[in-house]
Design goal:
Helix 4 crosses helix 19, helix 11 crosses helix 15 and helix 13 runs parallel beside helix 15. The protein folds into three domains: 184 residues, Thiamin diphosphate (ThDP)-binding fold, Pyr/PP domains (Rossmann fold); 160 residues, Rossmann fold (3-Layer(aba) Sandwich), CATH 3.40.50; 198 residues, Rossmann fold (3-Layer(aba) Sandwich). It is of the alpha/beta class. Strand 6, helix 8 and strand 7 form a beta-alpha-beta unit. It is globular. It is built from 24 helices and 19 strands. The longest helix is centred in the middle third of the chain and has 23 residues. Helix content is 41%, strand content 16%. The protein binds adenosine-5'-diphosphate, ligand TPW and magnesium ion.
Length: 574
């Protein structure tokens, strides 16, 4: 037999992995090369897959996570073993925490050497390390099991509460060859990886009964609702019931932020006053003050603890995680909201006018105050005057995707930049993690082809800044706006001894725009809203990789943005 016929009759691990991914409609890989992944990526590219190669695995992993959130398909990240794997692990853990489906696939050393700790090249027991940080972890040792391995990874990432999955592929596996036909037959196309989960009728009735009896109902939409793509059902439920709603940050745009029923501009009022709160794909974690304390006035013991919760979630164990949930509704959001819509019937009474009117009054007052602040034009720019430019740009291009991280830069952008379409805002999520910026931006550009506007604190940007080369290399329509206030929170900290910079200070007047220029992109410094607007408009219309160094008053921010109260030193003062 010639080598040629032999090759035709056998298939190796490289090709089986690629075919298994393709069979499951996966066409993009986010990665960083090295043995044995280099060859894998070359072959994947030759086989027609889109391979996006990064400068650090954490950003490849973050890109995979964001792609998972945006597409409802698991985002795929490939890394090398040990250090590459560890670099990707933060992204995997973050994806799991945020309920984003992704699969981290790392090459690994051979079991027989790792288990005897004989000191292989980049040796590490990766499977054991990944396990507590993700939803599921698998290892494939034989080429004939690749199909099962990929199928289990895909199903684990997407089913129920989505999350991160680790798949360990030892280097030797890629080179294993098996009979081509048997190999091809061993691949599995996952059928219905995220099955609908229809809520129990009595649970639907319980929720509806509670809502009907409410005097001050409120709906909170979370990023699970954005992920679920039940946009029409949700909008119809909100509009039919007339219940005011609050979007969590990544649920902004599920209904447009200028919707009459949005209570965002009266957030503290509605959280303190609501008597029945329906959570839709949102957890009662720290971002919602755990459902208790003074944020939730009506729920406090002082007020008689009369606040009641309905929780719509796919995870059956989420309810009661922080406070009692009177009406858990377990199922996928599309099915749950459809069932609620069907159960509303014609007799539904809109919420009392004193509730909706009270919210409208507060909204008017707060929005007027906000408009006054935004109209100011201080020199140097502050967060408000710079964000006002981005606010207008997003209004003009509602299809653009906003990526956002930082402290003040995050908190102000979240409230100032309105979103108009679902799944257009990606940010620091459940952990409030810095470093997602460029990875998320690359994924957003690659998976949607839409303009991306990354609103970045100067510190936040630093975590992934080198990926501007990736953005230039793939010529992605990403405009990074660095809010340059010379440091973390502010640029004005001083070291009391005066012998070194304070820990939160950066080099003053840093020329971030030159980083984009270094790789052939457009770099602009903006000292005024006019300059910022001009550069941003050009970036969005040209689609050229752009970095705008927006010079912000270094005194304008506050320590930790809006979460100052979480600082232990602050707690001591209280
Ligand atoms: P946010 O930070 O926006 O408040 P969280 O990440 O805390 O949102 O909550 C998202 C919730 O959405 C999780 O509890 C998750 O189980 C749930 N979820 C995700 N996808 C679905 C879905 N398709 N159907 C129902 N619940 C979902
Ligand atoms: C992985 C802690 C929270 S916010 C922030 C840090 C370092 C940076 C804030 O400065 P920035 O924004 O971006 O310049 P601004 O506008 O207020 O000046 N490491 C990780 N995650 C977090 N959250 C931190 C550290 C942190
Ligand atoms: Mg800063």
């Amino acid at each position: 037999m010639t080598t040629e016929t032999l090759e035709r009759e056998t298939i190796d691990g490289f090709h089986l992995v690629i075919d298994a991914l393709k069979l499951n409609d996966i066409d993009t890989i986010f990665a960083l090369p090295g043995i044995p992944i280099t060859d894998f990526l070359r072959i994947a590219q030759a086989e027609g897959m889109k391979v996006i190669s990064f400068r650090h695995e954490q950003h490849a992993g973050n890109a995979a996570a964001a792609a998972g959130f945006l597409t409802q398909k698991p985002g795929i990240c490939f890394t090398v073993s040990a250090p590459g794997f560890l670099n990707g692990l933060t992204a995997l853990a973050n994806a799991t925490t945020n309920c984003f489906p992704m699969i981290l696939i790392s090459g690994s050393s051979e079991r027989e050497i790792v288990d005897l700790q004989q000191g292989d090249y980049e040796e590490m027991d990766q499977l054991a390390i990944a396990k507590p940080l993700c939803k599921a972890a698998f290892r494939v040792l034989h080429a004939e099991d690749i199909g099962v391995g990929i199928a289990r990874a895909v199903r684990s990432a997407l089913s129920g509460r989505p999350g991160g999955v680790y798949l360990d592929l030892p280097a030797k596996l890629f080179a294993q060859s098996i009979d081509r036909e048997a190999g091809q037959n061993s691949l599995i196309k996952v059928v219905d990886p995220a099955p609908r989960q229809i809520p129990a009728p009595d649970a639907v009735e319980r929720a509806l009964a509670l809502l009907k009896g409410a005097k001050k109902p409120l709906v909170i939409l979370g990023k699970g609702a954005a992920y679920a793509r039940a946009d029409d059902e949700i909008r119809s439920f909100i509009e039919k019931t007339g219940i005011p709603y609050l979007p969590m940050s990544m649920a902004k745009g599920l209904l447009p932020d200028n919707h009459g029923q949005s209570a965002s501009a009266a957030r503290s009022y509605v959280l303190a006053e609501a008597d029945v709160v329906m959570l839709v794909g949102a957890r009662l974690n720290w971002l919602l003050s755990h459902g208790k304390g003074k944020t939730w006035g009506a729920g406090s013991a002082k007020e008689g603890g009369n606040q009641q919760f309905i929780q719509v979630d796919i995870s059956p164990t989420e309810a009661d995680s922080n406070v009692a949930i009177a009406a858990p509704l377990v199922g996928d959001i599309g099915s749950c909201i459809a069932a609620l819509n069907a159960g509303l019937g014609n007799g539904w009474q809109k919420p009392p006018a004193d509730w909706t009117g009270g919210i409208a009054d507060r909204k008017d007052k707060n929005l007027t105050k906000m408009a006054e602040t935004l109209a100011k034009n201080p020199s140097p720019m502050n967060f408000h005057s710079a964000l006002n430019v981005i606010r207008e740009a997003v209004k003009a291009r509602p299809d653009a995707i906003v990526v956002n991280e930082g402290a003040n830069t995050l908190d102000f952008a979240r409230s100032i930049v309105d979103m108009y379409e679902p799944r257009k805002r990606l940010d620091v999520g459940t952990w409030g993690i810095m470093g997602i910026g460029m990875g998320f931006a690359v994924a957003a550009a690659v998976t949607t082809g839409k303009p991306v506007i990354a609103i970045e604190g100067d510190s936040a940007f630093g975590f992934s800044g080198m990926e501007v080369e990736t953005i230039c290399r793939y010529n992605l329509p990403v405009c990074v706006i660095v809010f340059n206030n010379n440091g973390i929170y502010k640029g004005t900290d001083v070291n009391p001894l005066g012998d070194a910079m304070a820990p939160t200070q950066f080099v003053k007047e840093a020329r971030y725009e030159m980083m984009m220029q270094a790789f052939g992109g457009v770099g602009v410094r903006a000292d005024t809203p006019e300059q910022l607007k001009k550069a941003l408009d050009e970036a969005v219309s040209s689609g050229k990789p752009t970095l705008i160094n927006a010079i912000i008053d270094e005194t304008a921010g506050t320590e930790s943005g809006r979460i100052t109260s979480l600082n232990p030193a602050m707690a001591k003062k209280k």
